[in-house]
Amino acid sequence: MSRKRPLIAVLSAVCVALLAGCASTGNSGIQEWDGLVRRPDSRIDAVFVRPDAELTSFRSVMLDPVQISFAPNFDPNQGRRSLSGRLNADDLAAIKERLAGLFHETFRAELARGGYTLVDVAGPETLRVTPAIVNLFISAPGDTTVGRSRVYTTDSGHMTVVLEVRDSVTGQVLARAVDGRNGRFSGQMTWTNRQTNMADAQHAITIWAGALRRGMDEVNAKVAAK
């Protein structure tokens, strides 16, 4: 457990700097990160790989529990006048728990499409993936129930994922990916609730899981070609 707390703090700081660089330099950004070299990717903001890593076929994934942190400016009770409707620490923990469950299940299903399985033990054909969701901002985090006003927003919020991919046996870091996603943006005020928030989150997580699956497919194809 001692490793996970500093990991999310470090990843959060680095990914904020990285994405800021992407925005301010025409998406050039940082080109090297901890010995990993950036490679072009049309779907993910930034992907870094170890150029000297030995190619190995991978058939399964050890998926660490996703670590989640809210954006510094996220105020779940902004605009709430009633004390009875305010969210407390338990409510925020429940939001993280639901999102973590959605993350795990979406990755399991998406990887299964490529014939990959989630496992609990390290092995020579197993990747270890350590995910973190940082800068999570939810525009309308509360429930809408009978007797309460509906919440209308132009989008459901945003979040950034950082994936660290390692060889599960040696622990060598093979790749990292950073990607920020905004929720639904219609340009119009639409009703936002837990269901729409989770649907937007699942859409973003599916993109990230798909990127991992495609990366494994690419590596396995190169190994097979040898």
Topology diagram in text:
Elements: H1 4-24, E1 32-33, E2 36-39, E3 46-49, E4 60-63, E5 67-70, H2 89-113, E6 117-118, E7 126-138, E8 152-155, E9 157-167, E10 173-182, E11 185-191, H3 194-225
Parallel strand pairs: 4-6, 4-7, 5-7
Antiparallel strand pairs: 1-2, 2-3, 3-10, 7-9, 8-11, 9-10
Helix pairs in contact: 2-3
Kindly summarize this structure in a few lines.
The protein is α/β, with parallel strands linked by helices and 226 residues long. Helices cover 35% and strands 29% of the residues.
Explain the overall architecture.
By secondary structure, the chain is of the alpha/beta class. It contains 3 helices and 11 strands, in the order αβββββαββββββα. The strands form 2 sheets. Strands 1, 2, 3, 4, 5, 6, 7, 9 and 10 form a 9-stranded mixed sheet that branches. Strand 2 and strand 3 (46-49) form a beta hairpin. Helix 2 runs parallel beside helix 3.
